[in-house]
Structures are given as C-alpha cells and as structure tokens.
What does this fold into?
Amino acid sequence: MKFKNLTGFLFAIISFGLINVASASALDDVMKARGLTQKDLLAAAKTYTPTAGRDEFIVFSSGGQSGQVIVYGIPSMRILKYIAVFTPEPWQGYGFDDESKAVLAQGKIHGKQINYGDTHHPAFTETKGVYDGQYVFINDKANPRVAVIDLHDFETKQIVVNPHFKNEHGGAFVTPNTEYVIEAAQYAAPFADKFVPLEQFNDKYRGGVTYWKFDRKKGRIDKSKSFTVELPPYSQDLSDAGKGPSDGWSFTNSFCSERYVGGIERGRPPFEAGCSQKDTDFLQVINWKKAAELVAGGKAKKVNGMDMLSMKTMVDAGALFLVPEHKSPHGVMMNPTGKFLIVSGKLDSHATVYSFEKMMKAHKAKKYEGKDPYGIPIVSLKDSVHVQVEVGLGPLHTQYDSKECIAYTSIYVDSVITKWDYCKGKVLDKLSIHYNVGHLMSMEGDSVTPKGKYLVALNKLSIDRFNPVGPLHPQNHQLIDISGDKMQLLYDMPVPLGEPHYAAAISADKLKPAVRYKSGWNSRTDSISPFKTRAGREKTVRNCEGDKCTTEVWGTLIRSHITPEIIEAEAGDTVIIHLTNLERAQDETHGFAMYGQNVNLSVEPGKTVSATFVADREGVFPYYCTEFCSALHLEMQGYLLVKPKGYKAVKTKMVEGQTYTKADYDKQVKTNIATQAVINGVVKFITERNYKDFPTAVALVEDATDQLGFAATWQKKSEASAKAKDWQNATLQAGQWWQYQVKAADIGIRAKSYLEQNKAKKIKK
Amino acid sequence: MKFKNLTGFLFAIISFGLINVASASALDDVMKARGLTQKDLLAAAKTYTPTAGRDEFIVFSSGGQSGQVIVYGIPSMRILKYIAVFTPEPWQGYGFDDESKAVLAQGKIHGKQINYGDTHHPAFTETKGVYDGQYVFINDKANPRVAVIDLHDFETKQIVVNPHFKNEHGGAFVTPNTEYVIEAAQYAAPFADKFVPLEQFNDKYRGGVTYWKFDRKKGRIDKSKSFTVELPPYSQDLSDAGKGPSDGWSFTNSFCSERYVGGIERGRPPFEAGCSQKDTDFLQVINWKKAAELVAGGKAKKVNGMDMLSMKTMVDAGALFLVPEHKSPHGVMMNPTGKFLIVSGKLDSHATVYSFEKMMKAHKAKKYEGKDPYGIPIVSLKDSVHVQVEVGLGPLHTQYDSKECIAYTSIYVDSVITKWDYCKGKVLDKLSIHYNVGHLMSMEGDSVTPKGKYLVALNKLSIDRFNPVGPLHPQNHQLIDISGDKMQLLYDMPVPLGEPHYAAAISADKLKPAVRYKSGWNSRTDSISPFKTRAGREKTVRNCEGDKCTTEVWGTLIRSHITPEIIEAEAGDTVIIHLTNLERAQDETHGFAMYGQNVNLSVEPGKTVSATFVADREGVFPYYCTEFCSALHLEMQGYLLVKPKGYKAVKTKMVEGQTYTKADYDKQVKTNIATQAVINGVVKFITERNYKDFPTAVALVEDATDQLGFAATWQKKSEASAKAKDWQNATLQAGQWWQYQVKAADIGIRAKSYLEQNKAKKIKK
It folds into this structure.
C-alpha cells in the first residue's frame, strides 16, 4: 500500500469508520487540485465564513478618490457596502433625491458642485477613548471637507467645508470624547480666497489645524463652535489626539518644512527634491484644550467667517511648540496609554518613540533648542525621545496591539510589516507583503483598548496578485494574523473601486444599525419628512403661478405597485415626486427610475424621498421600481404623461386589452381558494412551532400577516364587484387579491424554511 | 486517553512524526473556535485562493442601478473591479476627463445628461457561439441604451441610445458571431417622441426588438446598419439568439400581453393585477437573418432616424410568429445545441421545454391556432412543447451545464435551485438558497460550450446572511459546486454596491488585458491622442480671442512630479490641462486632483487625458497626484495660480525657505554614494540570478533601469552646479538625483524579493 502524499496517508488512516471517507479524500483531492498547502488550509479555515456567519470586526476604509467609504468584514474580507459620501451614487439614490442633494450641496466650493472627494482617514466617534459605534468621520483631501456618517443607517448626514484651507490631508482624527474632529491642512495656501504670488510663500501662505466641534446630541458638526490654529507653511500631515496623561494635546506632523516651492517647468528641481532636503521636519504639538479656552476668551479672529487663533497667540499661551522628527514622516500615533508617540520618516529606516512626559518636561521648563522662523519654540529630539529603532527602509505608519508595548510598522520600500517592542526598542518579527504598503490597521488600534488578533496591510500595488483587469489595478488589502508570536499572512483582498488610504476597524458587536426607518422619515435630516404620505392619502396636485406650473405628487411604494401609476403634467412643469416606502419588512427596499429625466431613487422601508425635475418636453416617460421586490416586481410600473402646454383632452374611453367574464372571475376565485389552503398549511406549520423564539421568523410572520390583510381588502372589493355583476373589475380585483396571497405565501415559505433550518421545536397549544 | 472530538482524535493519530502537530491541532482549534464543520472546511478549500493565486473564471455582473459592471473571480468570489459604464466614477476619472465625458455624452436623452443607468444583462462577444473574450455589452433599462466595454483594458468605449424605445429590459444578448446585439423593449410607449394618451395604448403604444449591428473591426456598434422589429404593446422581456440548427432566429418573451393599463390612484386595480390575469403570455419568435435581408431590400422605414420593420412586413415574410408561454415568464434560454428552448412563468411552477424543430415544423406548415390582435400568427403550445416539468414555485431563469441535458432553474418563491434533466423531463436535485433568487449563472452557460463546475445564484435578499449595514442591504451571490451529482453550497458573497440582475462568466484564460497603453493613448477612442506629450516637451500656452482667453497645458506625470508644477492663468480663463503618464511600469497609475474645480483624473501608464474647466475666480488652487505612487508621492504637487483679470506682476524675487551650502551638497553626495552601493548590491543579486526567466522581474528591472537613468541626468546637473559653486541648486539637484536612486532601490528590492520568493536560481556568467 503506497500513499501519494501525506494527506492521502492521513485520510487512509482515519478511513476505518472514524470519519466520512468521501469527504476526507474529497478534501485531499481539492487541496491537490488547487495546489493548497497545509498552511493555506489553515488560513482558509481562519477566514472562510459560512452562509449566515458573522464577522468579528467591521472595517471602514477610505475609498480614496472614489469619494466613498468601503465597509468590509474581518476575517472574511468580504465587502459589505460602499457608502456614498462625496460622490453621487445612484444605487443609494445619493445625489439623485432632493434630500441627499442637499447634503452634497453643503459641500460646494465657492458655489461649484464638487462630484468627488479624495477620502483618506476615517475616524470613529469615541467615548473616553473607546470606539462607541455611533458615527464615522471622513475627510476629503482635494477640497478640504469633512463628512459625518451615521452608523445607525450607514448614511452620510453632513459635509462641512473648511473655510481656511485649500487642501488637507490629516483628517479625520478625534479627541477622546469626540469633543473635536481634527483636520490639518496639507499644501500651504493663503487663507484669503484670492491670488497671492508664490514669491510670497513664506509670508502669506499658511498651514493650520482645524478643530471641528462635534455636537453629539445632534450628530452634527457645529461650525460656529469650531476653530483653526494657524501654522507655518509647512505641509501638515497626519494628526492624533493625546489620551490619558496626554489628553488635551494633539500632535500633527509635517513635511516640506524647507518651504520649498518647485517649478520643474522653469528649470527648478521639483517639489520632491526640495521638500526632502533637510534631515528633519517638525512635529507640531498643540494644546487644544487651552486653544478652546483662548477661543472662548475672545482671543480668536474671524477669518472667512470662522474662528482662528494666530501662532503668536498660541505660542504666548504656551499652547504650541515643535519637536524635530525624521524627514517626510507619515503618521503620528499615540499609544493606548497616552504616554508614547511613534513617528517615522518615509525616507529613513527608523521609527522614533517620543515620550510625552519628556517633551512636556522640557516644554514646561522652557528648555528649547531654538525657534522656527515663525517664532515657535523647538523642544530638542534629545529631550523628547524615548527610543529609536531600525524598523526597515521607508517606515510609514504604526499601529498598536492589545499586548502591551507591541507595535506594527508598515515599511513602504521594503514591502514588509515589522513587529516590534516600542518600550524596549526591539524588533520581534518581519513579514513580507505585496507590494508597497501604505497604512496598516489593527483592530480598534487607534483607541485606548486595541483588540489585537488581526492586522490589515493596505498595499498600494497589486501587480501580479490577482487575475488581470487592465491597466488600472485593484489595490490589495492583506489580512494578517497577529495572535501568535509570528505574524501569519491569511488573505489577499482586492479593492475593486477606489484607492483606500487608511481604515479603521471596530468590534462588530458595537454596531446595531436599524433595518427600517420610522414611517415617512427623511434620513438625511433625521426627522419626519413634511412629504410623508400614508396609504390611501396619495395625491397629485398641479399649481400654477402665472406661467410657472408645478405638478407635485405625494406617492407611496409597496409590493408591487407605485401609487400613483399615472402622473399627468404639462410640458414646462416643474415635477416634484415625493415617495414613501410603506414596507415594514427588512430588506424590502423599492427603487424608482424614470426614463430620460435622470431620476433614480432608493427608498428603504419607511423612508420618504423626493425628486424634482423640469418636464421640459411633451412625451411618455415610463417609470418603475428598480429593486426586485416580489415575483411581480416587473409589473411595478407607471407612466408620466407630459402633455403639450395647454393641451385639451379629447374625451375617449379606455378600451381594455382583455375583457373578463363570470367564468374568468370564478376561475380566479377557485385559484385563490386553493392558494389560501396552501397558505393555511404554512401558517399551521409555523404556529405549531416556537417561532416566537426567532426574531427573524417573527418579522416574517408580521410581514405575511400584513400581506394577508391586503388580500382580504381586495377580496372584499372583488366580491362587491361580483355582486354588481361587474365581471371585469371583479376578475381584476380577485387577481390583486391573489397577488397579495402570493406575497404572503412567499414570505410564509421563507419563514417555514428558516424554522426548519434552525430546528424550531413543535409546541403544545 | 480521551479525545474531545473526532478531529482531535484524528490529529492525535497522525501526530507520531507524520505531520506537524502544531498546525494540525491549530486547524482543529480554529475549526472549533469558529464553529466550522467538515463541510465548511471543504467549501473553504474549494474557494480559498492564496496570495498570487488565480481564479478559474471571471464574472461580469450587471450592477443594476449603480450603472456599473462588477467583475469578480470564481471560485474565490473576490471582486476585482467595478467598471464605470453609465455613471460618472472619479477613481477611474470616468465622467471627469474630457475623453470619457465624450462617451457619457453619447448617452444623452433629448440633450439631457443621464448620470446613472439601470444595467441588467451583460453579454460577451461570441465567435461561432463561443465566448471570445473581446468585448462585453451591457444595457440600461431605464433609458434604453447599450454600452460597449473593451476587455483589452476594461473600459467603456461607446454608449448608443435606442431611438425607438422609452424603456427596455431584454438587452444585451448576442447572435452567435456577434453580428447583432439584441435589445428588446419593455414598457410599451409610442415610438414618436410626443404625448399620446393612454386611452390609445392598444393602437399607438408599441414594443419591439432592436438588432444593433456590431462592427467587430472597429469594436463599435454601427447605428446606421442597425434596425428594430416592431412588436405589439406587450411588455417584452428577455431574449436569446438561436444557435446551430436555430441560428438565424431569436426569441423574446413577454408579459402583460393583456395590455392592461393600471391606475390604482383612480380606483383601478394596479398593473400587477391586470398584467398577470391571463394564464399565458407570448414568446415572440423572430427570424433576424430574414429581417436583415428585408432591411437590405428596402423594406424598412426610418423612424427617428433608424430603420424599423413593421409587424406586417415581418409576418408577411414569415419572419415573425408567437408561441404561448406560462404567464409572467422571465428569461428564455436556448440550450447549447440550439435545439431546445426553456421558458418558465414566475407565477407558475413549471418550466416548459420547447422544441425548436417542432415549432418550426408547425410554422412552416402554417399550422396556427390563431392570430393575436396585431395579426401575428400563433403556433400552439401543443405543437411546440417538448416537455413540461414541475420545478418549483416561481421558476425564473435557467442555465445549462457542460453535461448533456442538464439544466438548473432558479426558483424565486421557494428560494431553491432545481437541477433537472430537460431531455427526459426529470427533477434531479434541489438546493436551498438565501433568499429569493433572481437570475442564476453557470460558467459560459449562454454559449455553445458551457463549462459546468460552478453555478452562481444571484439572490435579491440577504436579510440575515451578513453583518448588518443599515436599512439598505447588500445582495447575496451564492457560489454552488455543480461538479458532483448533488449541488453543494460553497460561498456567500455580499454585493457591496448595486443590485446585480444578471451576470456572465468566462474562462479566465480567455482574457489577456493590457497592463499599459501605447504612450499618449486616448483610451476612449483607441487612438493616439492629439495631446500626447513627451518628456521635455511640456508647455503652457495662453491665447486670447477678444475677451475669451484659454490657458492650455501639455503636461506629463512621472514618479514623483507633475510637469508643470506651476500653472498661471487669469480669472475667467478656460483652462485645459492635458496630461500624459510617462510610466512604463505596471500599476504605476497617477491621479490628478485640483482644489475646488471638480477636476479629478486617473492616468494609467501611457494614457493621455484632458480636463477642461473655467477658472472663474482668482485664487490659489493646489493640485496633486492622488495615487500613492512612490515614497515621495505626497510631494507630487503643484499650484494653479489664477490672477485677477489683467493682473500686472510686481517684480519680486523668491526667497528660499531654506538655503544650502557646500557642506549640504557634500553631505547629500555622500548619501548618494552610499545609496548607490546599496543599489549595486541589489543589481548584483538580480543579475547573478536567472531573472530573465521571470517576466515580472524583467519588467521591474526595466523600470529600475529607467529610474537610474533619470538619476544620472540629475547627477550631471548637480555636478555642473557644483562646478559653478551654485550650492543651492547643486544641493537640490543632488537631492533629486537621490530621489531617483530611492525609486530605483524600491523597485530593485521588490525584484529581489520576487526572485527570492520564486526561488530564482544562481546562474554562471
């Protein structure tokens, strides 16, 4: 007896009745056929998530210039949602319904609509330094803006435009109780919205850090209570807020403290040469609590309508100083205890661990090594460093483990992740990644309670990792197991849309999103919409003021018809359509798309949305539901009829395409009675089981009961028509009665299957 | 000795030196901790794809109302790309650069820009009925349009607007040699672009099928050679082309042949009741080859500028007839041999297998059971059916296996997939899916050579399958193993953006996309751009005609600077920026985003793109590269300076933020010499190995050699400046010399790691 390989032998051993032979050899065959090693199998077991399985962590990743936020699960690495933030996105109706258009309009720059954002750094709301799962903030580097996403429904609620900057990079980061969202400038520019020659760069161009006040109760940023701290025209980079002993302070690093201005087209060496000439740049250390007091004390000036504190005011108050850092750093990360700060220069091989205690000691003693050209005092590297460690070529970003003193640094040039002890200053492990990692992310790694377990390397290049898809490649997020002493690569995830920069992961159990809205809800303002429409209260109203006419529709959506099914308007009318989704069932979203008018809405259960457009020409414009919501989804349709201006109707009677007789009616009723028998069987099955112990089943039963209620309503209508011998209507109404029966049966069968699969028990009545 | 479970026992047995104990018990521990069964482990092994692994099939899925096409791999179920088609998408620069704006502009409806599409059915080009991997077509249901995607670069090249329809559903489907792309109408409407009362529905509203001529050589649809066949105002649904014996014919099903017009708001039963009242609808059978001859013979009339054949012309030519089909069907699928056609009604439990031979026999014998109200003859069900099979409640769509006579039908209401023998009419297996499946898809299932192996269920609801993400859920694509007798569920994939309707899968080895463009390429027209710019030929030109001024820039992008770094214009100027990516390296895409002007470009290696905007106000507008392209990526920046109209410059000299001395120069040169030593070591390592056997390594070496060439250029410049004792420039130029060294080192190290990991051999010189 000879075995082709170890696994074959293994399965031969255990085939004596101990385990299912077929499945064992099947595994062997599959591994052979697919070239999987035992290590691969272990990685597969660590990441594969069977149907209905749950991920342990949920990642919110920036989508880069896609302008979106990407949501995925760990360890399955399955992408769950793209949240539209700065870019219109039709699946979500974002930028198509009036409600979300209003959110996007908040983000206009000098009145110009911006239809993208370059998102970089997401940040969760925190309470006492712990992620609380309420909101996520995300920035736009290109057009300095910050957006607020509500984790109650995963929707963008607000966009604020920074009135002081022309570019930013270092947003969003939060203070430990989300008092402020920190947004730092990047490419220096004049604060004034006017032309200033580059020759005046040193004097008139400026950087800064904005502290956006977050109103937790309203779930919105309050611009009137926000302020900016003026900084030199260095390129500010990332920030982090202090915590514990360092709470009250924030840290922003920088590059190009040379203040070099390129101009390769005129013979000057480019920015990249002049901005990386000095060995060090500056870490900018700011006392934001003191700054807030200065603002409250009237020390700020209004610049472009928002408070700003000058460098001088800050320096005089002892609330601003600098510390040298290795050149071209990216990322400044406060450790979970708030005692140490890690910074590394991308053109260097060291990571520097700063001691907050040390730098504060020097600052308090006014022990400075000098001042920068703008009068900001400089605490020396010597007086602030805890330890410096050789971590690899091109260290970029550091994240923290749940284990004390353990950090991970992404190494861009070497394409590795370095695990090291930042207390003792000792490298512990290195893992190759593919290729050229930017940020990396550990679970709740920015909080005071990192969760360990996993790390994600956000790699900028994928090259040969995946099946090719043309010149524009996906990026590659690699999942790494950090639970043991040695890091283990688990999974390569292509990012199919966007160029993520940074991401943040939260324990899945902290998220409790809703599955429906209160009926008639404007999800963008989080309030009952004035256009909420109840079943039976639908209406279309046409009003003219002089030549200007408006056709306004208050409509509803339910499986599977749109009310109204016919809308009449005249050419030139402004048409406003308000739609409320009457469904209570989970996942019963309806869409609404209309020919030729750029109208496309997504209406989740309970939501009310509106679309406004000008019907600028006569014609016939079909509309329909875009979501496959029931077997009769394709019949969820209607027509907008735009008549010529001043059109006088010729009285004509509709000739039905099909006429029905008593025989048709009787046949339909027979079908309905048979269908009801099937439904009764399903109802019996369900009610004889402990379905009330299963929330999913309870929700399905509620939905089915609703559908049966609608069926009963149409049964009555059809019986009345039959009594009046109106067989045409009687038959059609009996048809609608049946439609609701079919929906009830569909849902009932789903509940039955669910109970069977989840082994519901028979109960005694 | 007691074992906690079978797996524990198994690993105990094999722990006597045969296998690594740690990893075996690790697998056991992981399975226990994650609650995985042996079946789950097998599914994991069948789908898990280690780093650099390849998928066997590539799926192109419609993105529904996202207006995109989703590309993912099987069996890994990892999404590789979202291709922008009907919706502007900034990551790809789609709808932001002038070149792609021109593609989107082709899709305007009556001059209105439509910023979304409701994509439904992708179709690959075919040669002799086999997928050839050249192009994919995708339709827009809402605004009847068809788009052409080139698989050479995964970009959208063309959008055509249907001039006859106001809505469609049944596109895109192709004839066996892609002579035509078939697009059928859905909601009937008047052909004329004007108001026609619904009372005239039966007489003036019409459906139809359009046959778009595809010019394979140009890779574009030729509207002038395309035509529409007029059909009754039934709601046309999906289509399929015949193949083999049925080549030359196409088949389009329909619903609402009742021609019912709803109006629930005026007391009428809704569309869903009236459109599903009759037991049968009509399959529309069309001889497209004959139709093409009729058009060539001058039998068509121009309607809205495109040829149309009337129903009468088609019926008279024997090129159009009807066959009854169970009511509200979705999908009509010709089997691989071209002999059988499967249709099923969503409100029924049967699938009907039609015999093409039988229906043709009756048609040729003019054996009809009557005519519809539009004079189209009807072949009876009896005279065309091969067999009818009870497949389940709400059968929707059928796909074919590689095994003869085997089909799979998605069952919407029951939420199952039924495997059955369509020759013998026998159900073989059923598998539960979650929940409410729409289409399903087998590998190359629409071609004459289906590949078997896998099936994907495109489920409309996910409800409890994934971690919750708010009221709007992802859809769920479930991967099913069909290689054995019984179907096995392998994987649940959430769809994070869009509502896919149908998908098509192609063998991965048929796709050979490019990784770069020819230098200066306009990827949308597939030709050299007139704005192609070579290195050193960059320029900015300002021209005025009267009051109207244009500032036009011919620029380039390369790691890591934009040329020009400073652009000057005056308020009111139209600014046109052309950018060519000079990179040859794979995956070295550069982006270009500018503050406040809604400018965001994606420039893949070799590509030339343009952005046009009006600089309507004075100010300072930073711009930068949005892709993390090198360690100095953040320094890849520049400024657009918009001066007030008629601004006269005050002569000022730039004061450098930092001045450099001979000592600085010497220090930089010392660094460069040390860096060169590192590079030489890497070069030695590579050239001593058989790197030429690895195309990836060869490409990296080419790229590194380019970078070293640039380094040499700047070395010369700096040495010249040093000779002239211009230490400021000498230092900065030496810095740029070093920047190129760093890039070369980065790439060289990547090549070295690649060779190490791929076990390259030492060679003798």
Q: What stands out?
A: The first strand of chain A starts at residue 57 and ends at 62. The CA atoms of residues 566 and 639 of chain A lie 5 Å apart. Chain A has four domains: 6-47, 57-262+269-510, 521-643, 662-757.
